[in-house]
Amino acid sequence: MTEADPGPRAPVLSVRGLSKTYDRRSAVQALDFDALPGEVLGLVGPNGAGKTTTLRMIAGILVPDAGSVSVGGCDLVREPVAAKRRLALVPDNPQLFEQLTVMEHLDFTARVYGVPAWRGDADRLLAELELADRADSLADELSRGMRQKLALACALLHRPDLLLLDEPLTGLDPRGIRTLFDAVRRRAAEGAAVVLSSHLLGQIEGLCSHVLIVRTGRRVFAGSKEALRDRFPELGPDASLEELFFHATEGPAPAAGAVGG
Ligand code: ATP
């Protein structure tokens, strides 16, 4: 008896033709990509390439000029509440409620997202992120790295299918980075898709299964790390993400929608 073919997995995130212009400056141009369950997608590109703008549009914080975003099959415009329930964004500089404690942030998040019996999960998350002894600290009293970890704890509490992390390594100490990576790997293993932007290519290389390279708001490459290496065979099979990145982003900027993975 042959085993049933499960077929292609449905993407958690589908982005099509996403575009944004600020004043007359184009920030994101006709961006297309998917993220599947279990994928950790590294969103990389030079300063001003449009990474934060892209993440903010996917999260529904910024309205695109054109294009569509679908999260777990829910269109962000037609079903905004359903789509947003399935995702969480941790910005690079999280805005917290300075006069709420760490645990009160989790309580608030649980209420907003209607998470039942949240306290056990909150305790586990704080332990996982090494914040258990700061549960009663005000946000105002936390270090920068602790603030990032609290924002991540809030993001994870409602078990999003799609986790968006904007420059998550900034401000974390080496142990904090390892803790973050462990948390990301665990969620990906459970079936979440993770999209994270970073300039620290050497650090994220081992974490990411897939890469989206953008430049001047356009896609230069989207696909697995293996496909990226295949695209530039001249760099050899052991080329680092950093070498591949420089190779892919040198030379003239790509035309809109060019060079898929
Ligand atoms: P970095 O790596 O430096 O964080 P990024 O890839 O995240 O950059 P964005 O912050 O998305 O890039 O910016 C993309 C482009 O949009 C840049 O040219 C930037 O100047 C412009 N931009 C971003 N936010 C605004 C804004 N609020 N008003 C006007 N222009 C903006």
Your description of this structure?
With 261 residues, the protein is an alpha/beta fold. It has a domain at 13-101 and 160-249: 3-Layer(aba) Sandwich (Rossmann fold). The chain is built from 9 helices and 10 strands. The chain has helices spanning 51-58, 80-85, 102-113, 119-128, 144-157, 174-189, 201-204, 225-231, 241-249; strands at residues 13-22, 25-35, 40-44, 66-71, 74-75, 87-90, 162-166, 193-197, 210-215, 218-224. A 6-stranded mixed beta sheet has the order 6-7-8-3-9-10, sandwiched between helices. The chain has a 4-stranded antiparallel beta sheet with strand order 2-1-4-5. Helix 6 (174-189) links the parallel strand 7 (162-166) and strand 8 (193-197). It is globular, with a radius of gyration of 19 Å. The two termini are 35 Å apart. 39% of the residues are buried. The structure holds adenosine-5'-triphosphate.
Topology, pairings included?
Elements (H helix, E strand, L loop, with lengths): L12 E10 L2 E11 L4 E5 L6 H8 L7 E6 L2 E2 L4 H6 L1 E4 L11 H12 L5 H10 L15 H14 L4 E5 L7 H16 L3 E5 L3 H4 L5 E6 L2 E7 H7 L9 H9 L12
Parallel strand pairs: 3-8, 3-9, 6-7, 7-8
Antiparallel strand pairs: 1-2, 1-4, 4-5, 9-10
Helix pairs in contact: 3-5, 4-5
This protein binds adenosine-5'-triphosphate.
